[in-house]
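seq as requested:
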Amino acid sequence: MAFMEPGDGAETPLTVLLDGVLAGVRRDVPGEVGTAISIAHPAPKRGGGRLHVLAATGVGEVLPPITTGHLWGPSLLVAAGEEPIATADLWGDPRWPHLTLEAVREQVPDRHFDAVSKVRGVGAVPGVWDGGGVVVLSAYLDRAADRRTLAVLARHERLVASAITIAHVADRNADDAELMLDALASRAVIEQAKGAIMTLRRCDADEAWAVLRRASQEFNVKLRELALALVEHIGQAPAEQPVAGGRQVRAGADGRRAAEMVWRALTEAAAG
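struct tokens:
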């Protein structure tokens, strides 16, 4: 399993996609001051073990390696129990009594301590790692974390699982990996287009997907290009491209004409 070791400076399909997950969490979680994607391999027992950080931003680069061992905290507890955890007070939660701001001060470089001291809530969700280990997606907030935080993280954790799959494929077949990278880059904009159709038609996700597929076939344009053009036509602004590494969905003139016609037909049907 290939991934970037801390400090090696190498970019692999996995690290590129994990950077995209981090960007998505930063965008979608209010109050985020750091995010970390870590693995525990093998899965640890409660109150023991360590985490290896695969990718991180902000205080996520500092806290996971510290909040393990005798200072175990929510991320390691998630890895041990494989259940999501949210806390409103990282430094005062009775589930990890030894983890206090004073204890952490001794292990955090002075240049990072001010940022670490601003952390209040933490949300962390587990996923499956290669060979029976656990991957943990953790977000550090300047406010309380709650169920909504966990719901957002759970959506992004599925992208982590996709990234792991892609990395496995990349080790075996570069052409297949390229196709999977493109597919993952398309997912977000397709979900946005489905959401717009669901709102307008008051339908479920399966019906919205069927609408996109039929339109793609009828107008002979790629579904991802149609979805992008539809999102940009509705919003009258460029769609967000959350996956890092330069992989962006682009729509040509045919896709944009198709999107305009599809949206006109949908709005007319909804009005009638």
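Confidence is low (pLDDT under 50) at residues 1-9, 242-246.
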